[in-house]
Design a protein that fits this description.
Radius of gyration: 16 Å
Shape: globular
Order of helices and strands: HEHEHHEHEEEHEH
Structural class: alpha/beta
Length: 183
Amino acid sequence: MKKLRTIEMQRLTVDEFKRAEKLPLVVVLDDVRSMHNVGSVFRTSDAFRVEKVCLCGITSTPPSAEIHKTALGAEDSVTWQYFCSAKEACCALKEAGYELYAVEQAHGSTPLQEFRPVAGKKYAVILGNEVKGVHQEVIDLSDGCLEIPQFGTKHSLNVSVAAGIIIWHFVTCHIKHLPMCAD
């Protein structure tokens, strides 16, 4: 086996990315403090063609050298929108027909491996602050909570790692419906 060279990877240009069909998923960041986490979420969202990232509350927005450090330009390809609060973002998404799922450990949460997104539906997942998690008022607006099973002693994941796991779950459930090339 030989590593691929960049030219062999057939990467989309930013314009091709913007025109390409997207995964019907919006990622909402609820008061995420770390700009490195924000950048990592952008980069993962680019990799899997997430529709949009909503940056809420104290979550930093591009342009930012710290976000760019981990996003590596994905902040330019992925559509993003700022909201004063995650509650405001979630109300707008609900009105636009999205089903909302907070990624949180909560009474009655659904283990991620048991959740199957339905083709044709639009979803938004909300990831919370690194210490406090998703605000309760946002959980109250959600259609449910998704929980990533954990088997160690910590029972918490870095927000960008959790985002990657959640996004990948949606990708694997939608892969048949998402063409891999731009039109």
